[in-house]
């Protein structure tokens, strides 16, 4: 799952860099053009930005869904294994306490 998230994040970053580069190039071109060409370039910019926004929304929805799934799985595990979870938490607390007391 972490690999998929990293791949999605990398793709998102690459897409936004592409959108930014395209937008900068188009804006330079638009400043030198007038009439129908300028309108066509503005339309392309709007389409690129719309596509980027849609991808970002899809990516965000995906991350939220995966986070909710992980939270539900954790909640179920804790409820089904309450005593083991408490024991693990106590053990970790004792370990941290021991490590901190050794520092003094």
Describe the overall structure.
With 104 residues, this protein is mostly helical. The protein has one domain: Methane Monooxygenase Hydroxylase, Chain G, domain 1. It has three helices and no strands. α1 packs antiparallel against α2. The radius of gyration is 25 Å and the shape is elongated. The protein starts with a helix and ends with a helix. The model has no long low-confidence stretch (mean pLDDT 80).
Write the layout of secondary structure elements.
Layout lengths: L1 H31 L3 H45 L1 H22 L1
Give short descriptive properties of this protein.
3 helices, Methane Monooxygenase Hydroxylase, Chain G, domain 1, mainly alpha
User: By helix and strand content, what is the structural category?
Assistant: mainly alpha
User: What is the H/E order?
Assistant: HHH
Shape: elongated
Helical coverage, percent range: over 70%
The separation of the N and C termini measures 40 Å
CATH names the topology as Methane Monooxygenase Hydroxylase, Chain G, domain 1
Radius of gyration: 25 Å
Indicate the proportion of strand residues: under 5%
Brief account:
The chain has 104 residues and is mainly alpha-helical. It has 3 helices and no strands. Helix 1 runs antiparallel to helix 2 (36-80).
């Amino acid at each position: 799952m972490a690999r998929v998230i990293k791949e999605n994040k990398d793709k998102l970053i690459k897409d936004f860099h592409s959108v930014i580069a395209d937008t900068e190039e188009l804006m330079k071109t638009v400043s030198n053009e007038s009439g129908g060409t300028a309108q066509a370039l503005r339309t392309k910019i709007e389409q690129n930005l719309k596509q980027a926004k849609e991808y970002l929304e899809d990516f965000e929805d995906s991350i939220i869904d995966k986070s909710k799934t992980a939270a539900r799985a954790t909640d179920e595990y804790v409820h089904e294994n309450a005593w083991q979870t408490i024991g693990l938490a106590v053990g970790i607390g004792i370990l941290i306490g021991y490590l901190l007391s050794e520092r003094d």
